[in-house]
Automatic annotation (TrEMBL):
It comes from Bacillus weihaiensis. Belongs to the glycosyltransferase group 1 family. Glycosyltransferase 4 subfamily. GO terms for molecular function: glycosyltransferase activity. This is Glycosyltransferase. Residues 3-152 form the Glycosyltransferase subfamily 4-like N-terminal domain. It comes from the Bacteria. The lineage of its organism: Bacteria, Bacillati, Bacillota, Bacilli, Bacillales. Keywords: Transferase. Residues 182-346 form the Glycosyl transferase family domain.
Amino acid sequence: MKIAVLSSHTSSLFWFRMDMMKDFIENGHTVIALGSEPEAEWKKKFEEYNIDYRQLYVERNGMNPLKDLKTLRFLYTFMKKERPDKVFAYQAKTVVYGSIAAKLNGISEVYPLIAGLGSIFRGEGFKNKVVKTIMKIEYWVACKCSKKVFFQNQDDKNEFIQNGLVKGKKTVIINGSGVDIEKFKPTQFPEEPAFLYIGRLIKDKGIMEYLEACKEIKNKHPKVRCLLVGPFDSNPSALKPDELKPFIENGVIEYFGEQSDVRPFISQCSTYVLPSYHEGTPKTVLEAMAMGRSIITSDAPGCRETVIEGQNGYLVKVKDIKGLTNKMEYLISDREICKNMGQESAKIAREKYDVKVVNQSIIQTMDL
């Protein structure tokens, strides 16, 4: 069969969905991957895995109806020409317009993944309420056009069901994107305590809370390292270079930019920190778990599923800098507990988040 995999963020498609697409191909199917970045930059990278990459027109952020109509028109034309047997889509705009475009072409085998509800969906204020109402309508239409809808956590699934956006019998829970436990293996603990954040530098992922907590930690424990890996972003809540600069210049943060292989950086940390406001299931947390690191993350949708409190790490309240700092300090003070938590993380990753098991759930649901 021919399977179209749609995303509004090409690098996410390449790094987070490659294992799934490779499994589709191993099962004898062909894959066309559609993302927002230029073909000149990405086509050869996908071809190495026998995947046909196409650039689609989509504006990841913003609510311009003319631009969104252009996205729908592009996807409609693509579906009409390529006639994929099945469509897998994730991220808001490709879920909505990909599902509609498929339905308009008589393609009923559409499987969107709701990989975390963004800041608009859970935000406050009049403008946010208006945008949220529009998004609810769009998601309702997308779910109507779909055969099954994947979710990565119970909170997001319940939110959709309670708002009447999807019927419970149409939903399927999967354990995040999974992690390649053959690639991400436990490594030796560093001699000195070190913390790490990996991700886009957007405020909704708790980057400011991490920076402020690191500032407190460095004041009290100058030898402790605080590492940061990830790109700047176009998201409205993105951190600006000038906002990060003082933390680098004052020696609070060691910033390494975007990295294609995060394993060397996970190996340098004793604890992985992600104080995000909401996630689907954060893949970087799963990777750090698989490599045997203790976890501090927020008690928020998608994040809380990865931690058994006091067993492989700790949960802190969203936007709670003091609570985050306290947990970081505690793991500095007891290396043995930190190490034991890391071992428990690796065990949980193997038992629950093995990418092969996650992909098998997707393959079975899509009847591949």
